[in-house]
Design a protein that fits this description.
single chain; alpha/beta; D-amino Acid Aminotransferase, Chain A, domain 1; Glucose Oxidase, domain 1; TIM Barrel; eight-stranded mixed beta sheet; eight-stranded parallel beta barrel; 48% helix; 17% strand; elongated; binds adenosine-5'-diphosphate; binds magnesium ion
Length: 897
């Protein structure tokens, strides 16, 4: 840091673009000042000064003189001196990082008060009570945040003072009571910190600034940053702002407001105001706040001014803003603004409204909403009209609305669910032992743990609704009850949880399907019928933005669908084809016996017979699928499952045979042969074993049968006047040689079917890229592949060496907690590792075969962050499960902007 570096900026010097240097709060205070809004003057100590302090342990050498100069300018401008005995200037010291960060230092108000200036303040304001109230607040905040004294000590003393005065609220404590309270507070400071409360105003200021710097590295702040992926080396700015007073009686007050309702998106100001109060009183819930409408009645001038300023801010920032303000004896002051947070529904509605109001373009509107928000709007919801008793609120860990009987252990969850009950599994925290209970439950509720706790991660992974860390709940698994305050809920009682808000309700709340899903599946007209105005407006906003995303995007969106029914739904949801039809699902259920017959076939005839039986069934499957997807590309993947998955369980079979032998009974010869086959086929790592293309090369005839079924189905569709656009995909290829070998067989069958049917069959044959070796040799593989589809599930599995079936519950909660990754690589594509294989293979494939079509068909195809990556990597389409299609469409549109 050079000596010349400017470390302190007056509010009048900066603007909103300087959040890196001035922090978000400082940059926006500067912006409001620049706009000529009524902001109390002040200055900002830069993040650069903070970084220097954090690295060296001392303030930059010039900081002191720069603060002195800025303070002098402030004093000259206001004609008052900091902490002066006559009419003192007081300031607030406020932290403010680039991004808003709960968990950092609380603001210290009224800096500059001491035993002398408190009298000057009382005289100047002609309000004794106000001055002592301000002083006691300073000692309290300073003691807690700068000196690290437990806040409860001050709170208890305040409660005692209220009791002594015989009053219920702090505003009723008289001046004398507050003066005594200051003495008590100073005593607490001296005994707890071993030092007197500093009387020197400048020392107060310097200590407060330093403690804001220090607060960057508190445990809470560090945890928050890790969770939100905020770099640890940004540092925070410090804002020093002349005090204005909301605690100067009934014509004063403090409030927070939004330019629109952040919950629903409804236009018009929305906020809370508290008269005769300071700072955080309004959010601390110590007294009942009033609405902006109430303020309009009580102080119409301030209200009108606030509304005018909010309109100005919204027009300027071109988005929903939130503000913090204070009224001092009828004069309005703005203390903070920023682009406001909002719910998913509000995000869509506000974006659409701002387009209507000609504030932003449709392109910009698209940047204001996310695929995650759309996904949230698609979950079933509690009927907003229905009453419910809110028990408590935990963390919104996995969205959805779940209702069920409370159970306290996994075994009970399983047995009750088996008996047909809907259950909510309630645990202090969950462990891998709870897995089956979680699967059986409609939802999971825990009293401990955050959004990366075991319960949260696993529930999200399997799409279970989950509220975690509801700390007010005391779960007593021994007594089989849970308690929230005085309320006791016994096992079997019904509770409702909202995984999108974290709310927990007593009793059953009615669940309704999301109107957004009705819209997506059945169109706008059907969806808005009977909806209230807010819901209808939301559906229209979604429609508008989604249609714009479709017009904007380059990536096509296909569906992963195995049945004609899924395919039809996917089409309604906007799928432009099927990117992955898994054929192994077609061998389950009653058809298992056919596979058994195939495996057990001892003669060539028996083998051929078993295959023929399968062929008929498969052809019908494909015929239905191609009918549903007429005119759209349909990628069918050849069998990709270890054969043993279709055979009986090895242990069960072995026991059956052993019992029969031991009891001298007759062993079923079929069982014996099956056991032999199952034992021969047993693998320790079936995921890395005999499956997919390997199966084709080891068990001849299987792939040929499937290809024949596909080709015959396509020929039949053509004969019926349809337009089948089927593509065949070979899974788990590692070497081009494998592909050459199976293609020999595949191409032969297609040619034969075409000739026999007398039609031209254009069926591209491609491969999945789902093994590192395939990615690394993609240039060679492209010689034999007419398209690539990245199977990012297996590619993640094999690149990391994680077994997807085992690892998530066990290892991931701990990895997330320890920061190895911030999101499961199975959920969101690991760009650095797996992503670089994707990029590499895409480029190599297209070098060999220019224009090679590229797609992705793993779960990542529907993950918002991953969709952006695939767009950037130049892929042609993503394929995902039907309900993720709208999410992918929206994100693909956003990625193309
Ligand atoms: P946070 O980041 O937690 O919102 P702030 O720095 O905004 O903290 O301060 C919290 C509250 O303290 C503000 O909303 C405002 O009510 C009050 N406050 C801060 N500075 C001043 C000031 N100069 N005059 C009056 N009140 C202030
Ligand atoms: Mg705060
Ligand atoms: Mg604030």
């Amino acid at each position: 840091l050079s000596r010349a570096a400017q470390l302190v900026f007056d509010f009048a010097e900066g603007d909103r673009t300087q959040a890196d240097l001035l922090g978000g709060k400082g940059a926006n205070l500067a912006e409001m000042t620049r706009l000529g809004l009524p902001v109390p003057p002040g200055f900002t100590v830069t993040t650069e000064a903070c970084r220097h302090y954090l690295a060296r342990g001392t303030e930059p050498p010039t900081l002191r003189e720069q603060v002195t100069a800025a303070l002098r300018r402030l004093e000259d401008r206001l004609g008052r001196r900091l902490g002066d005995a006559e009419e003192p200037l007081l300031v607030s010291v406020r932290s403010g990082a680039k991004v808003s960060m709960p968990g950092m230092m609380d603001t210290i108000l009224n800096v500059g008060l001491n035993d002398h200036s408190v009298k000057g303040l009382a005289a100047a304001a002609q309000d004794e009570r106000f001055a002592w109230d301000s002083y006691r607040r300073l000692v309290q905040m300073f003691g807690r945040t700068v000196l690290g004294i437990r806040g409860g000590l001050f709170d208890d003393a305040l409660t005692a003072a209220k009791a002594r005065a015989g009053v219920a609220t702090d505003v009723e404590v008289p001046a004398t009571g507050l003066r005594d309270l200051v003495e008590t507070f100073k005593h607490i400071v001296a005994t707890e910190s071993g030092r007197e409360f500093p009387q020197d105003p400048r020392e107060q200021l310097d200590l407060a600034i330093r403690s804001v710097f220090d607060s960057w590295n508190t445990e809470r702040a560090r945890i928050y940053r890790r969770r939100e992926r905020i770099p640890h080396d940004l540092g925070t700015a410090v804002n020093v702002c002349a005090m204005v007073f909301g605690n100067l009686g009934e014509t004063s007050g403090t409030g927070v407001a939004f330019t629109r309702d952040p919950a629903t998106g409804r236009p018009g100001g929305y906020g809370d105001y508290l008269a005769n109060a300071q700072g955080e009183d309004v959010v601390a819930g110590i007294r009942n706040t009033m609405s902006l409408q109430d303020l309009a009645r009580q102080d119409p001038a301030s209200h009108a001014e606030l509304m005018r300023i909010m309109r100005r801010l919204e027009a300027h920032y071109r988005d929903l803003c939130d503000v913090e303000f204070t009224v001092e004896r009828g004069k309005l002051w703005m203390l903070q603004t920023r682009i406001g947070k909002r719910t998913a529904a509000a995000a869509f509605r506000i974006a659409a409204h701002l387009v209507d109001e000609h504030v932003i373009t449709l392109d910009e509107a698209l940047t204001r909403v996310t695929g995650d928000q759309l996904a949230q709007l698609m979950f079933p919801q509690f009927d907003p009209g229905a009453a419910g008793t809110l028990l408590t609120r935990g963390m919104a860990a996995s969205p959805g609305a779940a209702v069920g009987e409370v159970v306290f252990d996994s075994a009970t969850a399983i047995s009750r669910a088996a008996a047909g009950a809907r259950v909510l599994l309630c645990r202090r925290e969950t462990s891998p032992d709870d897995l089956e209970g979680m699967i059986a439950a409609a939802g999971v509720l825990t009293s401990r743990g955050g959004k990366t706790s075991h319960a949260a991660v696993v529930a999200r992974g399997m799409g279970r609704t989950c509220v975690c860390g509801a700390e007010e709940i005391d779960i007593d698994a021994e007594q089989r009850v849970l308690r929230v305050g005085d309320v006791v809920i016994a096992e079997g009682d019904v509770v409702s949880i909202d995984g999108s808000t974290g709310e927990v309700f007593a009793g059953e709340r009615p669940v309704v399907p999301s109107p957004v899903v009705t819209y997506l599946e059945h169109g706008l007209d059907t969806a808005v019928e009977g909806l209230d105005a807010d819901a209808a407006d939301l559906v229209r906003a979604v429609d508008r933005l989604l249609r714009h995303a479709d017009e904007t995007r380059r990536l096509a969106v296909r569906a992963n669908a195995d049945t004609a029914e899924d395919a039809a739904r996917a089409r309604r949801l906007g799928a432009q084809g099927i990117g992955l039809c898994r054929t192994e699902h077609m061998f389950l259920g009653e058809r298992r016996v056919l596979i058994e017959r195939l495996v057990l076939a001892e003669s060539a005839d028996a083998h051929a017979e078993a295959l023929a039986a399968l062929l008929t069934l498969q052809r019908d499957d494909f015929l239905e699928l191609l009918t549903a997807m007429d005119g759209l590309p349909t990628t069918i993947r050849l069998l990709d499952a270890p054969l043993h998955e279709f055979l009986p369980d090895r242990t069960e079979l072995a026991v059956r045979v052993a019992v029969a032998e031991a009891t001298g009974g007759t062993v079923d010869p079929q069982d014996e042969r099956l056991l032999g086959a199952v034992q021969r086929r047993h693998e320790s790592n079936p995921m890395l074993g005999l499956r997919a293309v390997r199966l084709a090369l080891v068990v001849p005839g299987l792939f040929a049968m499937q290809v024949r079924a596909i080709a015959e189905a396509a020929a039949a569709r053509i004969a019926a006047g349809g337009r089948p656009r089927v593509e065949i995909m070979v899974p788990l290829v590692a070497s081009v040689m494998e592909l050459h070998l199976v293609r020999g067989e595949i191409d032969g069958v297609i040619a034969e079917v075409a000739e026999r049917a007398g039609v031209a069959l254009d069926i591209p044959v491609g491969t999945m890229i789902e093994l590192p070796r395939a990615a690394l040799t993609a240039d060679r593989i492209a010689e034999a592949a007419e398209f690539f589809s990245f199977g990012t599930n297996d590619l993640t599995q094999t690149t990391w060496g994680f077994s997807r079936d085992d690892v998530e519950a066990e290892i991931f909660a701990s990895y997330l907690e320890q920061g190895v990754f911030t999101v499961s690589p199975f959920e969101s594509l690991d760009r650095d590792g797996v992503g670089s294989l994707v990029r590499m293979a895409a480029a190599a494939g297209r070098r060999t075969r220019p224009g090679l079509p590229l797609g992705v068909c793993g779960e990542h195809g529907g993950d918002p962050g991953s969709v952006r990556f695939f767009h950037d990597a130049g892929l042609d389409y993503v394929s995902c499960s039907p309900y993720r299609i709208p999410v992918a469409r929206l994100e693909a549109g956003r990625a193309a902007l």
